[in-house]
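Hi R.,

Here's the chain you asked about this morning:
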Amino acid sequence: MTLAMTLTNVTNVEKLFETIKECEGKVELVTEQGDRYNLKSKLSQYVSFVKVLANSTVPNIEIVTYNRVDAQRFIKFMING
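And here is the predicted structure, written out as tokens:
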């Protein structure tokens, strides 16, 4: 099952990385150009979020999960921060 969601106004990037680490399945970042980065890979995290390090807020990012429990983790992240 593929679940796509857009996370908006992410201010706690450290918590976002913790949420990604907790996920059991594959988690991908989808760029505006349609490229997909495996966010379970530390290298992909660094490459994908270089811009995040320059800014304290991520206006919006599209995340794709392949596991319903992982999607719920991101929903909880967005509700609780």
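One quick note: Residues 3-80 form a domain with the Histidine-containing Protein; Chain: A; fold (CATH 3.30.1340.10).

Cheers,
M.
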